[in-house]
Specification:
With about 160 residues, the protein is mainly alpha-helical. It is built from eight helices and no strands.
């Protein structure tokens, strides 16, 4: 099962998962592209060792979240960077819809969370159960529930 064609199919089927992780853990288009590439690379490196003991999505989330956290730590060691303001690039944005605005507002609040909190809330928003989140993160299901309650409260406080 572990060949290039299978890997490509799995990546295509789960591309949204990777994009969501990338969106939450980056602040610029360049970083998004770099992190996406790094996640796919790490998935490819680990693909031959994937034994199918968990769902493919669970395995991919685990690799993607660990890669994103490592990417952030690497970025912190590099020093701070100032992102170029979108207005300076003279880019025209597509017509905003209410849903897009709400999604952006939610992602802005999620970006303010810690690395672990970002991963947990992202998995929750994906509709993962506490047990699935626990399998991906390594926490217990009870701990996931407690952390989610605190994360939701933190987001509510940030919005208000």
């Amino acid at each position: 099962m572990h060949n290039q064609t299978d890997f490509t199919v799995i990546i295509k089927q789960n591309e949204g998962l990777i994009y969501k992780v990338v969106k939450v853990y980056t602040n610029s288009k360049e970083d998004e592209q770099d992190l996406y590439q790094e996640i796919v690379y790490q998935l490819w490196k680990c693909f031959s060792t994937f034994r199918g003991e968990s769902k493919v999505g669970t395995w991919m989330y685990r690799v993607a979240l660990n890669t994103a956290i490592a990417f952030l730590n690497k970025q912190k060691r590099k020093g701070s960077q100032v992102p170029i303001d979108e207005l300076l690039l003279n880019r025209t944005e597509p017509a905003d819809t209410l849903m897009a605005e709400r999604s952006e507002a939610l992602f802005a609040q999620i970006k303010r969370l810690s690395e672990i909190e970002k991963g947990i809330i992202l998995l929750y928003l994906e509709g993962k159960t506490y047990d699935e989140i626990a399998a991906i993160t390594g926490f217990t299901a009870t701990n996931v529930g407690t952390r989610l309650g605190r994360i939701k409260q933190k987001i509510k406080e940030q919005i208000n």
